[in-house]
């Protein structure tokens, strides 16, 4: 069985787990804030910062340090629609990845996605958003990016039932500079299931599955993390980390397990 079948099983299991909790309850401030941080369609201003350390990267078994800065900026377009922008700014340092004895560091390709989201949940439970996604050719070194701008479409849908947040994000991106899809044509699916306690601890299980059509390569990492809500000088934050296991790796992906740390910072709305 292909490893990508794991993703379908993950989605089914996540949906089933969410449905076992149907009653509403009064949530604590910590629980509300922590659930807002992990909600892709949050209407709060969050800045997630994610660091990942990887070994056994690529054919030369190199190492890679990746820090993703991911500001989330929501806009209220009308009483019926919101626009949520999510930008991923990767800063990468790697060695022995492209060639033994060589290292590269700097900015990777920046990705921005614009989700148009109805303020009214479908059926009162299903929140969703859709819109364009852009992969900008911003890498400071050719080994840190795709070397070509990409454009695509993205969709995210989720439901929040008590302490559970369950949903998925899906997108498809085509390279457009040398010809549509000539350099890459990539499908991305990220199912996720989060459980947040009343004191603001969130446990998340997710898989960031990607399939590159041109090279017929799959990337199937499965990640388990835990994060804790706290306040520093009255600024709400979440801090945590976890382990990512690569069930299937493309040519320049890590193999085995990688470690990550996460920090979410909530900015006040003006």
Brief overview, please?
With 270 residues, the chain is mainly β. The protein contains two helices and 15 strands. The chain has a 15-stranded antiparallel sheet that branches.
Question: How is the topology of this model organized?
Answer:
Layout: H1 5-19, H2 29-37, E1 45-57, E2 62-69, E3 72-76, E4 81-95, E5 103-107, E6 110-118, E7 126-136, E8 150-161, E9 164-175, E10 185-196, E11 201-207, E12 209-212, E13 217-232, E14 235-248, E15 256-267
Antiparallel strand pairs: 1-2, 1-15, 2-4, 3-4, 4-5, 4-6, 6-7, 7-8, 8-9, 9-10, 10-11, 10-12, 11-13, 12-13, 13-14, 14-15
Walk me through the structure.
With 270 residues, this protein is mainly β. It is built from two helices and 15 strands. The protein has helices spanning 5-19, 29-37; strands at residues 45-57, 62-69, 72-76, 81-95, 103-107, 110-118, 126-136, 150-161, 164-175, 185-196, 201-207, 209-212, 217-232, 235-248, 256-267. The protein has a 15-stranded antiparallel beta sheet that branches. Strand 3 and strand 4 (81-95) form a beta hairpin. The termini are far apart. Mean pLDDT is 91; it is low at 14-24.
